[in-house]
Amino acid sequence: MMTAFVFGFILLLSLGIALSSRGKKKKMNVEEYLVGGRAFSGILLFFLAVGEIYSIGTMIGFPGGIYAKGPSYGLWFLGYILLAYPVGYFIAPLLWRAGKKYGAMTLPDLFKGHYSNRGLELVVALSALLFLIPWGQLQFEGLIVALSSLGFNLSPAAAVIIAGCIAFLYISV
Questions:
Q1: What does the domain layout of the chain look like in residue ranges?
Q2: How far is CA 67 from the centre of its chain?
Q3: CA-CA distance, 173 to 170, in Å (whole number)?
Q4: At what angle do helices 42-54 and 71-102 cross, to 10 degrees?
Q5: Statement: the pTM of the whole predicted model exceeds 0.70
């Protein structure tokens, strides 16, 4: 019971902070939402990238994947984590400059701007969606394991629906 109270309190507190921060900003447009108005410094982008790469995937996806798929998954994940950031370190500045040059807000926009090819833009968009499915599935498996250890014995379908509703709520706010 206490776990549910603390979990709900943290959820409501973070939602309250998100709502209170809305009133202080100017009206958002798509560019402001997706690429921060192109106003982030390199240092801030570095820490955002590190946080994105090493946070939720490492805390939920990695243990959940090992629990669900066995220890061989851990070797794959460690290899991915150890290789993804060094490769991104060299490629991300190039993508950043190209994105500014073409006014791109997504990777498919970047490919369309550089190659002037709508078909290539669609292939990149569909590929990105396709390759995100296993990542999302592992996040939900890890979420189910984490919620189960907190005492929330939910069916996988219920956990996914609740997580999807919470994510939608945060994104829409």
A1: 40-172
A2: 21
A3: 5
A4: 150
A5: no
